Structures are given as structure tokens and as C-alpha cells.
Amino acid sequence: MATGHLALGQEQGESSAKQRIVNDFSIIVATVNGSGSQSANSVLLKSIFGMGVPVSGKNLFPSNIAGLPTWYTIRASKDGYVARKREIDVLVALNPETAREDMMSVQHGGAAIYEEYLNLSSYRDDVVCYPVPFDKLTQALCPEAKLRKLVRNMVYVGVVSQLLGIDLGVVEAGLRKQFSKKPKVFELNFGAVETGFEYAKVNFTKQDPYFIERMDQTKGKIIIDGNAACGMGAVFAGVTVVAWYPITPSTSLVEATTDLLKKFRVTPEGKATFAVVQAEDELAAIGMVLGAGWAGARAMTSTSGPGISLMGEFAGLGYYAEIPGVIFDVQRSGPSTGMPTRTQQSDLLSTAFLSHGDTKHVILLPGSVKECFELAYAAFDLAERLQTPVFVLSDLDLGMNNWMSEPFAYPDKPLDRGKVLTAEDLKKAGSFARYRDVDGDAIGWRTLPGTLHPKAAYFTRGSGHDDAAGYTERPEEYQKVMDRLARKFENARKLVPAPVVTKNGTSKIGFIAYGSTDFALRESLDQIEKEHGVSVDYMRIRAYPFAHEIHDFVASHERVYVVEQNRDGQLASLLKLDLPGEQVAKLRSILRYNGLPADARTITEEFATKEGL
Amino acid sequence: MATTTASGAATGPGGPKLNHIGLPVIEYRGGKSTLCAGCGHNAISERIIDAMFEMGVEPERVMKMSGIGCSSKSPAYFMNRSFSFNSVHGRMPSVTTGAVLANHKMMALGVSGDGDTASIGMGQFVHLMRRNLPMIYIIEDNGVYGLTKGQFSATADIGSKLKTGVINELPPIDTCAMAIQLGATFVGRSFSGDKKQLLAMLKAAISHQGTVMLDVISPCVTFNDHEGSTKSYKFLQENDEPINEIGFVASFDDIEVDYDSGEVYDVEMHDGSQLRLRKLLEDYDPTDKANAVRTLMEAQDKNEVLTGVFYIDTQKPTFIDQLNMVDQPLGTLPESLTRPPKSALESLMTNLQ
Predict the structure, then answer these.
(1) Which of A13, A64, A402, B220 has its CA 20 to 30 A from that of B82?
(2) What is the pTM assigned to this prediction?
């Protein structure tokens, strides 16, 4: 074939040829999972990044080992928008099973690159079609059958690079970095990229409007996923005990943590300054964390919704017996098993009050990979300062996808190990009462097992206790401890990360969100301003208990939209419990909960409808 | 009263007897028991006090761990100077694992019950045994739930009768056989009423490195001490069949041990103490795992209650050995050893660009 098959009507073709869309479009790659497409997707993402163009990537994958449909979306955005784009501009169709559906989802005027025999041009005449004989090209390239499917994916990288105008040199540099220790693998893969590039060059005439052109918007930036960033934060917080149970989508958080521990935390004598234990279940994982935290270690676990549910009883023990520990929850779609490989923000309420009785937990809510790093290490300081379990709620979108970021800054403060009495302290003081509020901050002093003083020991228990840690069923003694715990939680409002106000002008309308919703919401707010001429204010919450500024923000607006990714408006509910009664009616929800990351367009549309714009 | 310090100091002449670190037994005592008078658990607490005192264990180096139930309350009744953690039902193993990871220099003594271990805590129990975590795990085993007023537990024998006349029809879980099979390295059974055997067993347990699992039959005087119960004082006194007689000589005791008779099994413990097991059951070899399990299963079929040290392995690496950790406890490592330097973060950032 001499040219790319142009299925576009002539009129449309002419108009789209005139219009160039540069550095502002989305690509979706449809494959099957287990086919090794991840490394090709990552190379394409990093190549666009290497061109200096802001980029983000998302993996939409099934809960399955191999053979089911998987999609990877890449968004290039000169304006730096990194949320999911609802519309699909360029399709790479490599999965016969979903090819028709995939083709139907491409937006009018978009482009499709696909395995030639799928003959997708028959479904759409408003999409530019580039059929490629991937199988034939790959067979010639790679005689070894078992490597073929991996190489096949690299061929598409070459085709896309040629069509979009990505420099082959940039792709080569990225590949070289990825396979720096495996020159043979590099050669095979780059050969495949070149083959695709050449095939497209010889056989296609560019008909679609999408181009990548060099920018300098990624200089000095890094690309990392949120789980790796959390793991890094934990390691730079000096975590020493990690106990966990595998669960999607949090597994890679512990894997990243473990890799870094092995890299940075082995003494010259070859001894580990850490312990990582794969526990028998999540109950044991958090039990180990609390045991270790009680005995002085910085301990963590990482899980997702089902694990959080299992940890309930222990979470209450940690709260009541006042034991530090850090629990990462990479949220996925619930309820129950739900959709393990799809994102959601639906564990907020259950985590805030996790366990029976009057239990409340400190929760940190990172909204970027940089904050995954920063709030991860902040969590360890807070857990020891407040002597309580601290939860860090990330989600699958933030945790498992690659995000561009400013490089992370080294913590500027030493570790805060909280209020711990040593044997010398006890020698001076004579004795101590574990749960007595001697400093007026509602936090008692603790001792660590092994403190060599006859008065160092105390009895840790989840049963009713007085302020000397003695068993009690006396009403006033029990209540005294409960009231102090409430005061401690109240004080935590000032210690947790403050909300981030990105806009706070004179608007009557405010927006509140947390976590990964931020990516879509920031874009949506720009759309609202540009398209509807409405300027709104926005506060992003970063922790529970809520800082007082959040009350002020609600008080200073007529209407406040709470945007979050769950069905029941969990953040809005938590705010309603916290706000003065007269403020509650101001809150309204915009909710996304179909498992896909929120996109700006949908939020903008719902806001416009609600406001009657 | 004697005045002491953790490092040990003498009392005046005529004062109480001191152990080899200079502490009187009173420094090993706990609060007043709130368990029923005559409860087997109280006798076990007494033996723990004796064993820790006689072995000269520094109380501040002991972590008393427990779950929930009558048994799990008992750490409040011994060793007030030791650190204690009464956790949640059936989960003492994981809490202890975490505590030992944070500070492996401490001696962990876990007290559990038959409900806490063999029902709600079975999942954690088996994995603890598998890891050979250095700790002493005591089941105070009375075959019933006491705090909820007398339901059968999973260690109740077939045919055992509740006060209400209900007969247990399900087979008991033999926690000793399980522990041996799963990897515990010191496994024994005793009876709270057998002072001599239990004390010797506890002293040997203190000298062992690895998981010690002791199932101590401990009659519940309120709910399971009647005619027809197989966990009553009377039944145990009549049916207790020791497989060996336990002799223990601590490393610091200046006593000669002779190694002669074929009727005796001598074991050198990790701390240099000597454990001498005089065979009462013909040719019983406490290092033969398969034979130990078979012996226990056969006894169960014959409705015999075997006691003694069933299994011992002083060579198997512990969980702490396997983790290859630094000698200093993880919990007290300084920041210079736990937070990587700025250059480490910078090199990571460069690689991600």
C-alpha cells in the first residue's frame, strides 16, 4: 500500500489537514494484559516527556493475569493538564476482541492505527486510518516466538513516533536508559521501533491533525507513580518494620519500599536496618505494625479497601491504646471485592471511624506524587507525635499511574520521634503515668520496652483503663481517658497538613476536593472560567481532622461544591459532621464513581447543569 | 523490703533470698489476681514468677504479651516490672512478632488460652509456629470459654461433658502436634497442678532460642472441673502420663551433669544450660518430629493425656536469624542509620528524570 488508507470524507479531510493540533491530545493503546505492552507504553510516554511536552499515562487493566483487554491512555498537554481526557483522539488497536468497540470510541476526526487484518476502516469514515501489518513485520524481526509479542508492541511505538513527529533519537535515548544493563534487549527493541518508524514513513501520508512538537516544559521534572513515591517517603522517614499482605493496587507500594530499603538500608557489614514481613493476612499485618510501633519501631503496612475492613479491630486498639503506626490505603472501587483494578475514593468514611466504639483516625490525603512522598514521611512523624495510627489514603489512579512532578525535596527537619521517656528521665522523675496529660497537649509520655528502670513498664491494653494504664471500669476514670483522646484529636487539626487554597477571590462559589480528583478539577475550573465566564474558588483538603481554615472557607462562600470519586459523597458527609449546622446546607456534591479516573469535561458539564449555566 | 536496682544489688543480712542478678522474688510478682480462687491459671503465673526469678531474668527485658480471655488477663498477675501488652482476641502472635522485630533483645512471653489460640487465633498461631519467632507461647488450656460462662473450646475432648450435660462431639485440636508439625522448636505439655514439671519446663523454655510452645492444662474451677470433664483436676491427676521427667540445670548453676545412662536425653540449650529428659516412655526421642506427632495422635486415640517435652530442636534458625538484621534493636536505631542521606534522594531524582 502506498499511502495510509484515508477513510475520511474529502471535505473533512481538507479541513482537518489545515487544522494542526499540537501537544494537546490523547492516545489510547488497546491490547490484552500479559502481552508485555506496559514497557512499550512506558517508552512512548517517556518519549513524549523527552520531547519536553507535559504528559501523563494511565493503565486501565483487568483483574486478571493474562489474556483480557487492557487499555493504556496517554495524554499530551501543552497546558500541563494531566487528568484523564474523556475524548479519545488517537487509537492504537492491537486487540481483535475489542477493536470494533475501540474504533467506535474514537472522536470524530481522530486517528486509528491498527493491525491491518482487523480492517477497522469499515466501521468509521470519519477517522483517519493507518493499517499496519504488525504480525508480518514482527515475524520478520524476531524469529523467537516467545519474544515476538513483546517486540510487536515496540513496532507500534515506532509507527506512532513517526506519525506524531517524535524524534527517533529521543525514543532511542529512553530505551537505552530503560535497558541500560541489557544491551541485547535494547537492540531487539530499538530494531522494532525503527521497523515501525520506517514502515510508517514509507507507507503513510500524514492525514490526521495531531503533532508532538518540542517544548521545554519537562526540564528537570521527574516521572514516577504514587506508590513508588509513598514508598520513597516511608524510606526517608526511616521506616524500620514493614508488614503487609499482597493486594491490588497497593502491592507495588511495598515492593518499591522494599527495593529502596535493600538499596539504602544495608550496613557495610551486610546487615539490614529493617525488617519486611509478608504476613498471613491484613489482620496480622496491622498487628505486627502495632507490636513494632509499641516497641519503638517506625512501622507501616499498605493495603486497599478489603484490607482496611479487616484491620478494623486493630485500628481501634491502636487508637485507644495510643500506639503509632502508618497504614497506606491505595483505594480501589468497592464495595466488597468491587473492581480491584479500578480507582475510587470510597474508603474515606470507613477509615475515618474504622473500628467499633468512639474511634476516630488521623488521615492524610496526598493529591500528587510529590505529596505522596511528603505526606508519607509526615505520617510517620505525626503517628509518633500523636501516638496513634495514621492512615494515608491514596488511590489506584494516583498510586499505579505515572505522573510528572517537580523533584522531591529532602526533608528539612529531623525525625520527630514523639514523647518518649528514657531511663535517665525516669531516674529524675521517679515514676510516670502513661496516659496522663502532664503537658496540656492531651498526649501522654510513653516508655519503650527494654527501658532499664524499675518504674518504666506499664500495661498496654485495649480494655478500659485509667491514666496510669491500670484496668478500670470506673465511670469517671474511663471517661477521663476518652475525653483526653477527643482533645488530642481536636489538637491534631493544627498538626496535620493544612489545606491548599489554589484560588480564593471574591467568588460566591467554592469548590472542595481531595487527592487525585485535583487533576481533573483544576482543568475543569479553567474550563468553567473560559467557557462560562465564572471564576470560582478552590480549596484542596489534605488531612482529617479538618483544619479550621476549611470551616472558614465554607463560611465565606454561598455554595460549595464537593467533588469526589464515590457514590455517597463521603467527603461531603464528613464535612457535614464537622461544620456548624448553618453551614451544612451550602454543600453540594459532584460525584464520579464508575471506576474511571475523573475527567474535567464531565465535572464542568455537571457544574453547568447544576448552576443552570 | 529489699531495695534493688535493675543491675542487681544485695540486701542487708537476713533479707530475702536474692537471685543471681540480686533481685528478691517480690520483684517478679504482679498485681492481685482477679481470677477465680483455685483457677489453674494462677498456679501457672506462680510458676512463671518462680522460673523468671530462679533464672535471674531482668524483668525490664521481658515483654508479656496476651490476647483476650481469662488466660490473657493473667500477665497482670505476674512481673509488674515487665512491659505488657494485652491485645485483641486471637491476635497476640502478630503483635508479638512486631514487638520482637522492633526489639529482638527482649524476651517475649505470650500467654494465650485455648479459645484465643485454637479458635479465633488459629490463623495467627500456625503462622507464628511456622516462623520460629523467638518467644515463649503458653496456652492456658481449660477446654472452655470462661468469661462467657462455659462454652466448649476447640481443645475440648470428645465425650467431655459440660455442667449443663452437653457432651462434646467434635475432636479436639492438639496444639502440640500442630506446633511440632509447623515448625516450633520446643514443644511440651504440662499441667498447672504439676509444680515440678511445669517449673522445669519453663526454665528450659527461658533458655531456648526459637518458638517454645507449651500447652498447659489448667482446670477451670467454675465451668469445667466437674465429673465427666477431661480437663478437671481429678481427671488430670488420674490420667496425666509424663513421657519424660524434666531435669534442668541453668548455665550459671555450678552443678556437674553426668552424661551416662541410655535412659536420659541430654540437650545443651542455647545459653549453655542443660536440659535432661529422663525417658518414661520407652525409647522416646524428643528430636524425632514424626515420632512425636505419632505419639501424640496415638495418645489421643487412647484418651491419654501425655505431658513432658515432646519435641526440641536447638539448631534451627529463628525468624530473627533469617531476617539478617543489625544487632541493635530496630526500634532504637538512630536517625543516621534509618534515614538515607540527601545524596541518596538526589540520585533517585536524577534517575527519574
Answers:
(1) B220
(2) 0.95
Q: Which three three-digit cell numbers place residue B106?
A: 527482649
Q: How far is Cα A390 from Cα A318, in angstroms, rounded to an integer?
A: 10
Confirm if A480 and A467 have CB atoms less than 8 A apart: yes
pLDDT over 50 (residue A7): no
Q: Is A64 or B249 the better-scoring residue by pLDDT?
A: B249
Residues of A in contact with B135 (CB under 8 A): none
Instruction: Answer for the pair A369, A394: CB distance below 8 angstroms, yes or no.
Output: no
Angle at A327 between CA A321 and CA A332, to 5 degrees: 135
- Of the candidates A274, A414, A456, which has its C-beta nearest B60's C-beta? A456
**Which residue of chain B is at minimal alpha-carbon distance from A275?**
B323
Q: What is the DSSP string of A318-380?
A: HHHHT--EEEEEEE-B-STT-BTTS-----HHHHHT-SSSS---EEE---SHHHHHHHHHHHH
Asked if A188 and A147 count as a contact pair (C-beta separation under 8 A), the reply is yes
Shortest Cα–Cα distance, A457 to chain B (Å): 5
Q: Which of A317, A342, A337, A340 is nearest to A327 (CA)?
A: A317
Given an 8 Å threshold on Cβ–Cβ distance, is B101 in contact with A238?
no
Handedness of CA B329, B335, B336, B339 (dihedral sign): positive
Q: Are strands A69-77 and A24-32 parallel, antiparallel or unpaired?
A: antiparallel
Cis omega (within 30 of 0) on the bond before B75? no
CA atoms of A450 and A338, how far apart (whole Å): 45
In the structure grid, which three cell numbers stand for residue B137, read together? Answer: 507461647
Residue A593 banded pLDDT, cuts 50, 70, 90: very high
In contact, A415 and A422? CB cutoff 8 Å: no
Indicate the pairing of strand A299-303 with strand A275-278: unpaired
Question: Where do runs of H (alpha helix) occur along A430-547?
Answer: 475-495, 517-532
Q: Which of B220, B191, B180, B186 is nearest to B203 (CA)?
A: B186
Q: Do the Cβ atoms of B331 and A240 come within 8 Å? A: yes
Nearest CA in chain A to B85: A460
> What are the per-10-residue average pLDDT scores of chain B (353 residues)?
39 80 98 95 98 98 97 97 98 98 98 97 98 98 92 92 89 96 97 96 97 97 91 92 92 70 83 89 90 94 92 97 97 97 98 91
The grid cell for A486 is: 477527643
Contact between residue B128 and residue A320 where contact means Cβ atoms under 8 Å apart: no
pLDDT of residue A1: 37
The Cα–Cα gap between B250 and B269 comes to: 9
Residue recorded with cell 505476674: B78
A371 and A499 Cβ atoms separated by less than 8 Å: no
Residue A298 CB neighbour total at 10 angstroms: 32
Task: Check pLDDT > 50 for residue A301.
Answer: yes
Q: Which of B57, B86, B322, B343 to mutate to test the interface with A (most CBs of A within 10 A)?
A: B86
Q: Which of A176, A180, A359, A461 to probe the B interface (max B CBs under 10 A)?
A: A461
**Contact of B163 with B61, CB cutoff 8 Å:** no
CB A265 within 8 A of CB A274: yes
Nearest to B349 among A267, A407, A459 (CB): A407
Given an 8 Å threshold on Cβ–Cβ distance, is A449 in contact with B76?
no
Per-residue pLDDT of A394-412, as tens digits, reads 999 999 999 999 999 999 9
With beta carbons less than 8 A apart as the criterion, state whether B179 and B212 touch: no
- Which chain A residues touch B8 with a CB distance below 8 Å? none
How does residue A534 score in pLDDT terms, banded at 50, 70 and 90?
Answer: very high
d(CA B74, CA A101): 66
What tens digit of pLDDT does each residue of A535-576 get?
999 999 999 999 999 999 999 999 999 999 999 999 999 999
Q: Retrieve residue A505's grid coordinates.
A: 477571590
Residue whose C-alpha cell reads 489514603 in the numeric block: A393
Contact A469, A519 (CB under 8 A): no
User: B98 near A295, Cβ under 8 Å?
Assistant: yes
